[in-house]
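Researcher: Go.
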Amino acid sequence: MNQQIYLEADTLITSKTDTKGFITYANDDFIKYSGYKLKDLLFKNHNILRHPDMPKIAYKALWEQIQGGKEFFAFVKNKTKENDFYWVFANITPSFDMNKNIIGYYSVRRAPNLEAVKLIETIYTDLINIEKKEGMKGSAKALFDIVRSYKMSYNELIFRLQENSL
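Model: Structure:
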């Protein structure tokens, strides 16, 4: 196992979660690429797909943004049921009720720019190593420094990497 699976160009993996990250909806592409059956995904935490090569700071940044009512873009390495993996370009947005309270999150994932994934893999490896030595505070500073070096916001940097327009 531990083989890479590549998303087809027209793939749109979608899911919805509650405010704690428990899956309330998964489409057919999600089921196909994750390797789980729908009954195995529903009401399970989305971190069931979390690959150990993902730095914790990536998820901390994600949760801070979406809990603050903002959308978030990221390159994410997901783990399948059989311990294979696949990369996605993810967009996560909060869902609101009529009173503007966050009631859950909606995520759409598509095939990533594979050139960007090469750079992201290096950055994620570095962030994990920093987390081991300096904790989340160190990896947060390192991530902030990387984004700042490009002189744009985090979401803009990630979006431009996907569009190959840096």
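Model: The first helix runs from residue 28 to 34.
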